[in-house]
Amino acid sequence: MSTRTQISPEDILRRAYTVGNYYGFTPFPTLAMEARENKPARKPYPKEISVSKLDPQGQVVASFLKQVRDAGITPSISQPLFAWHTNVTPGRNAPRHAIVQFHAIGAPHAIADAILMRAAQIFISDILKSQATLHINSVGDKETRIRYSRELGAYFRRNGACVPNGCEECTENDVYTMVEALLSHPDFQIKNIPSATDHLSEASRKHFENVLEFLEETDMPYKLSPDLVSRADMWIDTCFELRVDGKRIAWGSRYNDITSHFFENALPSVSVIIRINTKQKTVSSVREPKKPRAIFLHIGDEAKRASVRLTEKLRNAHIPIAQMIGVESLTEQMRIAESKNPLYILLMGRKEALDGTVILRSCETHAETIIPLNTLVEDLKTTLYQHTA
Fold it and tell me: What is the mean pLDDT of residues 4-24?
């Protein structure tokens, strides 16, 4: 199947709304509108941040963090922010290159990485009508980078004669930039270049294993890419790309320290940035998805994995539900659910996941019904139709 080359900007908005709803990412303008009731003062970039020195992905992330701060939104580990944002705006001319970004700010667990990858892959595959392949690696934390930098420095000292012209300005003091330059240079042949995953700290190794385990248990294929690296000045741990027909469409990674410039404390976070060519025209307004009639809440990893496997069935059946799969705390999930005022709550814990069931609770009567997962789609269709009939 051929890949679409220029996408309608309205299609980008519609699909971002839909995918965001099903995987737990709220559109940033909605969050900003709610938060700006307090009318916080807009602030400049922190003086200690030189945005121009960040790589292109880092500049996008820093700009988004500034918008979050300026809107008065204060994510934390107890109340993480799962949001998506785009430079496609109704009423304005579509940019030549649309940027759609998904963020999980204040989310330290590996499940946030995996859910973000899943949402981005579904969005890209939907919008381009072609399967996006996930390429993943880990560059580790600060402890890992010290080890890896030492190993890379020794490698380049031994193989200095192999460095192509044009890469000389990359020094041993910036070995990650050296690796990026070499890997993208057509004259460089990779020969036994050290891999970051061979030097991971215990914490980074465990996190990466958990990410891969979640991907495998939710049937999301991936390719390990040891040559995939990220610059040392901002990114940590998981880094990944989504490619269509061999071309990179999205790039993502974990980041941490930069959030301390915008919020009270540094927050473990992960993001993905998607770039798509758009049709040059004025963007029409797009109707947001209908208010979800049911909210799916999950307790424990088993339930979250089961939910991920169910999500595409629910989405393909056009059942209007919302989820917060990446949010660990049930209390926080309940807080978000109550703000949406749904008709029903779907609740799955470890017992239900192992039994292959889910609890359907009416928010009006508090009556509960146990539904087998293999009939959930049809049962939900019937229940929601009867309520609106």
Answer: 88
Which tokens in the block code for residue 77? Answer: 């580990």
Residue labelled with tokens 């490619």? 243
Domains of the chain: 9-140+201-277 (3.30.930.10), 142-197 (no CATH), 294-388 (3.40.50.800)
Largest separation between any pair of C-alpha atoms in the chain: 75
- Ranking 52-61, 182-191, 245-254, 300-309 by mean pLDDT, the lowest is 182-191
Q: Look up residue 214 and give its amino acid.
A: F
Q: What number of other Cβ atoms are within 10 A of residue 339's Cβ?
A: 10
Residue 115: which of 242, 220, 17, 228 has the closest Cα?
A: 220
CA distance 195 to 148: 8
> 137, 197 in Cβ contact below 8 A?
yes
For 221-251, the pLDDT digits (tens) are: 999 988 787 766 789 999 999 999 989 999 9
Rg (CA), the chain: 22
What is the DSSP track for 42-85? P-PPPTT--GGGS-HHHHHHHHHHHHHHHTT----SSS-EEEEE
Helix (H, G, I), strand (E, B) or coil at 152: helix
Phi, psi (degrees; rounded to nearest 5) at 86: -150, 160
CA 238/CA 209 separation, integer angstroms: 10
